[in-house]
Design brief:
mainly alpha, MetI-like fold
């Protein structure tokens, strides 16, 4: 007959293990609860937008609030497109976004490569000065830029909205520079030994290894250009050249009483952004994760 003897230290260790287990589950439960509350808080405005887009006018201002419209007024979307030149403004917006993304990716990647992989006198000072421009509000340079573009005859064209993207952006330069610095220099040295130029290293080594970071920059640039309201409002005069953001403001002035139509048009504007994010979510998270790495 064997007798099991329990040591006080073993008992205390088991108690601490149970306490840690309970604390672990309590902590995870608290985190999940906080995330659930934040998710509801962020999702509620979008749900209200979609809900209002499917309501009749009396249901919008009904008390108590009608959270689920019945019946669903799908005709609000067709009515909004009919009274609002949606397709023309969509085409204008896509044209601006396409060239802006192209210019942003090309210019910032090349500049970031020069700041991260090429040694030249004053490189760090120039990089600090570039970061300093992030402290300068865009409203400060709005009037001087408008005067300059007016003198060269670019007002009422898309050039003021597209051309600056080909001259770099300090924030995107910073993101790409940090990512490029995490790529081993040995890869570039091997290409250089074989007689490759700096552009060959950039195109054949850096770009293929930086797809996730470039996707993040492209996505940010697209969203900024898609949602840009102030730029088109300042530089575009002809109504047929308006973008969706500016077009929605004129819609509100002309058809302000038709809130359901306005919400339907707004839903059509933000849905492409949501779809684009879901398709690029993996690259987006990967690029953000590795951007902070340094060699």
């Amino acid at each position: 007959m064997s007798v099991r003897v329990s040591s006080p230290s073993i008992t205390r260790a088991a108690a601490r293990g149970r306490h840690r287990t309970r604390g672990h589950y309590v902590g995870r439960g608290a985190i999940i609860a906080v995330l659930a509350v934040l998710t509801v808080a962020f999702a509620l405005p979008f749900y209200w937008l979609l809900s209002t887009a499917l309501k009749t006018s009396p249901q919008i201002f009904a008390v108590p609030i009608i959270w689920v419209p019945t019946p669903l007024q799908w005709s609000n979307f067709s009515n909004a497109i009919s009274f609002f030149p949606f397709w023309q403004y969509l085409f204008n917006t896509v044209v601006i976004c396409a060239f802006t993304v192209l210019g942003t990716v090309c210019s910032n990647s090349l500049i970031a490569y020069g700041l991260a992989r090429i040694d030249w006198p004053g490189r760090n000072l120039v990089f600090i000065l570039l970061l300093g421009t992030l402290l300068l509000p865009s409203q400060v340079t709005l009037i001087p830029l408008f005067i300059m573009f007016a003198h060269i005859g670019w007002v009422d064209t898309y050039l003021p909205l597209i051309v600056p993207a080909f001259f770099g952006n300090a924030f995107f330069m910073f993101l790409l520079r940090q990512f490029f610095m995490g790529i081993p220099r040995e890869l570039g040295e091997a290409v250089r030994i074989d007689g490759g130029s700096e552009f060959t290293i950039f195109w054949r080594i850096i770009v293929p290894l930086s797809k996730s970071a470039l996707a993040v920059v492209a996505l940010f640039s697209f969203i900024n250009s898609w949602n840009d309201f102030l730029g088109p409002l300042v530089y575009i005069r002809t109504q047929s050249k308006y973008t969706l953001a500016v077009g929605l403001s004129t819609f509100l002035g002309q058809y302000g009483s038709q809130w359901s139509w306005l919400m339907a048009a707004s839903a059509l504007v933000f849905i492409p952004i949501v779809i684009l994010f879901f398709f690029t979510q993996r690259l987006f998270i990967q690029g953000i994760t590795f951007t902070g790495s340094k060699e």
